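Example 3.2
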Amino acid sequence: MQRWFSRVILIGLVLGLAACAPSKFKHYNGPPVTEVLVQKSERKMYLLSGNRALKVYDIGLGNEPIGHKQFEGDGKTPEGMYFIDRRNPDSRYHLSVGVSYPNPADTAYAQSLGMRAGGDIFIHGQGPEGRALSQVRHDWTAGCIAVRDEEVEDVYAMVRNGTPILITP
C-alpha cells in the first residue's frame, strides 16, 4: 500500500511540474508585423510595423553567408523579397516559420545550371544542436536565419503567414 501511494504522489508531482512549465507558444496582441527585414551584412532582423521596428534581433545565417542562394547545398541564405508561408511547431530548432524560397526565378536559374534550387528556408531558433554549433561558428545554418529560442517564440507569435520578408545583402 505504501509503495502504491508513493507512486501516486510521484506521478502527481511530475504532472504538476509539467503543467507549470512555460509554454514556447506566446500570445501577441500588439501592432501587426507588416514586414520582416533581414540585413545579412549587419546580421540583423527587424520586425516592422509600417516604418517602426517592433523588435530587432541579432541573427546567424547560412554557413556561406555572402551572396544569394543559387542551389541546394550551397550554404547561402537567399536574398530578395519572399513571404512567410508556413509554420513548424515541432522544429528541431525549437520553433520555425517558413520563407517562400524558392520563387519561380530562383527555380529557373538553378535548373539552367542543372541544379535544384533547394528549399526549407526558415527563420528558426537554435534548439540543442544550434546552441552547440553557434558556439563554434556564428553562421551555422544550411541557409536559414537563426535567432535564440526565446526570440523565435516572439517571431512565431508576432509574424503571420503572408507577411513579406525582404532579405538584403
